[in-house]
Write a structure and sequence with these properties.
alpha/beta; Rossmann fold; 8-stranded antiparallel sheet; binds 6-O-phosphono-alpha-D-glucopyranose; single chain; 6-stranded antiparallel sheet
Length: 616
């Protein structure tokens, strides 16, 4: 949440900052601003609303400065106003600051600063930190301005409680940027004669693919031609420069109307990437290189715990069905936000998996740290290479799904499902699954990209279903067993991007409450593939039909569905069981997408939401 980009080099900073903000906008989009060094101070431009509103206000030709910082905001402290937008300047004009995170002791610090005659023009915790750095800078009268600036940032960060990713400028040290992080991501971009700082690699790739991922409690000092890394406690750190595997084109919409649409259609490729190089030569099992656990260690695991948030949590639920079925290992699933504060008594040989697209979701990160602190082995399934969760987990699996920009997760979700299915078969082969059964399941897994392409071919038909269901205000999503997590995901997609009240339930739970809502104004979507519970699902369809509810049925070509049962019938290809959840997700994504477009919603930037939730 919130996006930061800073630049120091030889080119004018403002266009680079605006381009970076556009690429980071999925992290927050209620206000934006930039500050560049200018003469004896800063030129600071801010605007409530989108980055495009800020760009309209900034005349880059009037801002030739080659060093600046900028920010796109998701409001935590203070309303969505221009005054609360970042950057914030200290009241003496010495320091400009952008910040992602929450300073928890900002009220106490504000009192101290007021007593020192600093003043405030916003309600934000960030302005407190800007003033605190300025106060401490003033108190350091020895040394050159750059050293004093760096030291003042360190001292200030030593006094704050909470989380931060920051980039700061000092009026008396033009061309220098100081960045630091604790709990909020920050990445250094290493260019030729220029350096950048950003919350996410997406903002850097148009300038450089060489990056350094900062760790918690690290401070970075940037000038056009050099950078140095140290800890807040002044120990120097040697930087590891990594190369971003994707290019700027991967972060563009291309011919698609929305990133979400693009990412839905990228799923066959994302599934290929999830599988690439991950099957044993004899095709009897998936294999994973990065789990950092030996087969004997994996065989000893007698319980698994899966944690995540949002769609990743739904993927955890799906993992439970798959792993319990194929590997016969009991699986618990927890919301990361609940697990982190619950003193859960876990079985001794529990292996914890955290799932996260961004690798930065604060609750998932905290769950990982809590499990590690209790001495459990923790692995992660993450898309974002070099992210905090990826680095702090003891091992794991990269999704290689490419950058996901749309706020509502699509390709990262199905990639998580795919990897969960592969993991289930992998663990199963270490236990009771035979060689023959392993080969059969692997052959099924390998069909996922092709089946996903067939599901995507249904897009025109799903668009006409969407046209019929655009005007409803409520919808229920129902499915049993493996299809229950998909029902939850379908409902989440619809509410987050189309703002329609939607709920997902196990179909049998219908009669324990939700059926009270059912009627002509509350359509029901059933997931009814050809599985052992199909007859039960079809009975539930009859129950809602009897009460006048319009019915959308998503089934598979091999499912015996009576003619005329549903108002709309979407028929997926027959799927091998482990990839069924992956393929069933696709019509749900398309349906929500087309309904949201019909309703004129801003699909990629749904109201109040942001991707990469880095505040609790
Ligand atoms: C936000 C996004 C969701 C995502 C969730 C978890 O809520 O809008 O699409 O599923 O965060 O994100 P993560 O990056 O941890 O998968």
């Amino acid at each position: 949440m919130c996006g930061i980009i800073g630049y120091t080099g030889e080119r004018p900073a403002a266009p680079i900052l605006l381009d970076g903000l556009r690429r980071l906008e999925y992290r927050g989009y209620d206000s934006a601003g930039l500050a560049v060094s200018s003469g004896a101070g800063f030129t600071c431009v801010r605007e409530a609303g989108r980055v495009s509103a800020l760009a309209d206000k900034v005349a880059p030709s009037s801002l030739p400065a080659t060093c600046g910082i900028s920010h796109t905001r998701w409001a935590t402290h203070g309303a969505v106003t221009e005054a609360n937008a970042h950057p914030h300047l200290s009241s003496d004009g010495c320091i400009a600051l952008v910040h992602n995170g929450v300073i928890e002791n900002h009220l106490a610090l504000r009192e101290v600063l007021l007593a020192e005659k600093f003043s405030f023009v916003s309600e934000t915790d960030t302005e407190v930190l800007a003033n605190l750095i300025a106060l401490l800078y003033r108190g350091l009268d020895e040394g050159n301005p750059v050293d004093r600036f760096t030291e003042a940032v360190r001292l200030a960060l030593g006094r704050v409680q909470g989380t931060y990713g920051i980039a700061a400028l000092c009026r008396e040290a033009p061309g220098h940027i100081i960045g630091a992080r604790l709990g909020s991501p920050l990445i250094l971009g290493v260019g030729a004669g220029e350096h950048l700082l950003a919350s996410d690699a997406a903002a850097l790739v148009s300038s450089t693919r060489n990056v350094v991922y900062l760790k918690d409690r690290e401070v970075v000092h940037l000038t056009p031609d050099r950078f140095s890394l140290s800890t807040i406690s002044r120990q120097s750190v040697s930087a590891v420069v990594s190369k971003i595997a994707w290019s700027v084109e991967d972060t563009e919409k291309g011919d698609f109307s929305h990133f979400m649409e693009k990412e839905i259609f990228e799923q066959p490729a994302a599934l290929e990437n999830a599988m690439r190089g991950r099957f044993a030569d004899d095709e009897s099992s998936p294999k994973f290189g990065g789990l950092n656990l030996t087969p004997p260690e994996l065989r000893r695991i007698d319980r698994l715990l899966f944690c995540g948030c949002g769609s990743a949590w739904h993927a955890c639920l799906s993992a439970r069905y798959l792993i319990e079925r194929y590997a016969r290992i009991p699986v618990d699933v927890e919301y990361a936000s609940e697990f982190r504060y619950r003193n859960a008594p876990l079985a001794k040989d529990t292996l914890v998996f955290v799932l996260s697209q961004s690798g930065e979701t604060i609750d998932t990160l905290a769950a990982l740290r809590e499990a590690l602190a209790k001495g459990y082995r923790v692995l992660a399934i993450v898309n974002s290479v070099g992210s905090t969760i990826a680095r702090e987990a003891e091992g794991g699996i990269y999704q290689h799904a490419g950058p996901e920009i749309g706020v509502a997760s699509t390709k990262a979700f199905t990639s998580h499902l795919m990897l969960a299915a592969m993991l289930a078969v992998y663990l199963g082969r270490m236990r009771d699954l035979s060689f023959t059964e392993g080969c059969r399941l692997v052959a099924g897994l390998r069909r996922a990209p092709g089946l996903a392409r067939q599901a995507l071919d249904l897009a025109p038909a799903i668009r006409s279903v969407a046209d019929r269901f655009t005007h409803f205000d409520d919808m229920l999503f129902l499915g049993r067993q493996q299809m229950f997590p998909l029902a939850l995901e379908g409902a989440l997609k619809l509410k987050e991007i189309a703002y329609i009240h939607a709920e997902g339930y196990p179909a049998a739970e219908l009669k324990h409450g939700p059926i009270a809502l059912v009627g002509p104004q509350c359509p029901c979507l059933f997931l009814a593939p050809n599985d052992e519970v199909l007859p039960k699902v079809l009975s539930n369809v009859q129950e809602v039909k009897a009460r006048g509810a319009p019915v959308i049925l998503i089934s598979t070509a091999d499912a015996p569905i009576p003619d005329g049962l549903a108002d709309e019938h979407i028929i997926l290809p027959a799927c091998p069981e482990p990839v069924l959840p992956v393929i069933a997700a696709i019509p749900l994504q398309l349906l929500s997408y087309y309904i949201a477009v019909n309703r004129g919603c801003d699909v990629d930037k749904p109201r109040n939401l942001a991707k990469s939730v880095t505040v609790e």
